[in-house]
Amino acid sequence: MERVYVADALKKTGETVTVRGFVDNLRDSKYMTFIVLKDITGKVQITIEKEKHPEWEELLAGLTGDSVISVVGEVNANDYVKMGGVEILPSEISVDSVAEALPIARKAIPATKKKKEVERSSIDQRIDYRWIDLRTDENQLMFKVQTVMVNAMRKFLLDRNFIEIHTPKLIGAASESGADVFAVEYFDRQAYLAQSPQFYKQMAMAAGFERIFETGPVFRAEKSYTNRHTTEFTGFDLEFSYINSVKDVMKMEEELLTDMLREVKEAYGEQIKELFGKEVIVPTTPFPVIDLQDLYAALEKEYGYVAPEEEKGDLTTEAEQLSFRYAQEKFGHEFLFVTGYSVDKRPFYHMRDEQGMPQGYDLIWRGVEITTGAQREHRYEILKKQAQEKGLDQDVQFYLEFFRYGCPPHGGFGLGVDRMTMLLLDVSIKEAMFLFRGPNRLTP
Ligand code: AMO
């Protein structure tokens, strides 16, 4: 008989179904055995009257939590069953895979009369056995949410004539800054892992694609041990032509994020509240915008925060965190666009105005940067000069060529998908990634 998902089986009272999944819980009493079977759609109780099935004695005695089983049985309505008032009364049970005793505790287990309390394993221990950790309801929800997130953004952009591209991750020159790049052996020379698709997004503009996006891996050789940095993450990048200013880029981003959060709330708002205790807030547009120096002045006035003078060209980590409080109190908003970063803190490819101010921004959500965006410099001579000033012109020669044979004005931004997931659900980046990569972590 064809296997059905648990969520569908629960609706088939009176019918005989086949369900397959993990043993989520196992409870044995004198006359009864209760198995909770979990698949990716839900959980169902399998109720076994031992007297009726002496032939399963051995099978049940050897069954362990997290084993994988297949069950054929009748779906029965029973008000005493906590899980949806439905159980399955099995006529066949088979064990597909027996689980050994688990090497991690995914949750703290309270003390009983016979056993001491078991502490929850640390996130690092859990990552060692991530596939087991990922079986929890919370973790599976996290990746369902991320799927909706990326899918909503993809749909939004496809509806607006964006083309999806896939750019190389093995590249000949560092795109963001030479310092944070992983070098790899490439036959008899050196290559680098892409720090962003930046150069190729812009090549697509020079190719006349007008509007593109890409979602893919991004590598950063940063020795950071924070709750929001990783050496490999998933970027969601886009670029589009014929903009009039960076404001067009910011508008595109706020509309994209608002649409995405609306979809996430619709699909999983309730479950997120239940399992993560977080409200999904669909923002209003336009998002508030503040100049970096005005933000520093406001943080000093409101909260007495004074940043070191030499760091005021960029947003300090403390200011980034405090900006959430400020955005909420001043604008009643979770997002804050910050503009007016100093030239020496921004990449050479950002366009500058007559005063030399980079035409870019960072977007801060819940006190963490999720995006950098900008209008790009598309005029070859100026771009070349800006690259020279940063001592990069030799390395980026191939990139500068993109602007010699006609290129529309354009801009774009890059979003960190893992950071968004982490902020949405209020967990650390290690918890939010399928498999975290950091300075000390290359396995599993
Ligand atoms: P930026 O370097 O700001 O911009 O990166 C874009 C976004 O990627 C995420 N991010 C990270 N996430 C986790 N760990 C990290 N180490 C990490 N570093 C960055 C953040 C960040 O905002 N080319 C530009 C984008 C553009 O201008 O289009 C760029 O890469 O969410």
Structure overview:
The structure is a single chain. The protein has 444 residues and is of the alpha+beta class. It has 3 domains: 6-97, Nucleic acid-binding proteins (OB fold (Dihydrolipoamide Acetyltransferase, E2P)), CATH 2.40.50.140; 104-128, no CATH class; 137-432, Bira Bifunctional Protein, Domain 2 (BirA Bifunctional Protein, domain 2). Helix content is 31%, strand content 25%. The chain has 13 helices and 16 strands. The chain has helices at residues 6-9, 57-61, 123-128, 130-133, 137-158, 198-206, 246-276, 292-303, 317-331, 380-389, 397-401, 417-425, 429-432, and strands at residues 16-28, 32-39, 42-49, 68-77, 86-97, 163-164, 170-171, 183-186, 189-193, 211-219, 232-241, 289-291, 335-339, 360-365, 368-375, 410-416. Strands 6-10-11-16-15-14-13-12 form an 8-stranded mixed β-sheet, sandwiched between helices. A hairpin with a 2-residue loop joins strand 8 and strand 9 (189-193). Helix 5 runs antiparallel to helix 7 (246-276). The mean pLDDT is 96. The structure holds aspartyl-adenosine-5'-monophosphate (AMO). Aspartyl-adenosine-5'-monophosphate is lined by residues 176, 196, 198, 220, 222, 229-230, 233, 235, 237, 369-374, 412-416, 418-419. Aspartyl-adenosine-5'-monophosphate (AMO) binds at residues 176, 196, 198, 220, 222, 229-230, 233, 235, 237, 369-374, 412-416, 418-419.
Helix content: 25-40%
Q: State the name of the first-level CATH class of the largest domain.
A: Alpha Beta
Approximate strand percentage? 25-35%
Question: Which residue ranges are poorly predicted, with pLDDT under 50 across at least 5 consecutive positions?
Answer: none
Query: How would the global form be characterised?
Result: elongated
- Arrangement of strands in the largest sheet: 6-10-11-16-15-14-13-12
Secondary-structure element string? HEEEHEEHHHEEEEHEEHEHHEEEHHEHH
Query: What kind of assembly state do the chains in view correspond to?
Result: single chain
How far the N terminus sits from the C terminus, by CA atoms, comes to: 36 Å
- What summary fits the major beta sheet? 8 strands, mixed
The whole-number mean of residue pLDDT values reads 96
CATH homology-level superfamily of the largest domain: Bira Bifunctional Protein, Domain 2
- Tally of discrete structural domains: 3
Specify the number of helices: 13
CATH topology name of the largest domain: BirA Bifunctional Protein, domain 2
Determine Rg (CA atoms, Å): 27 Å
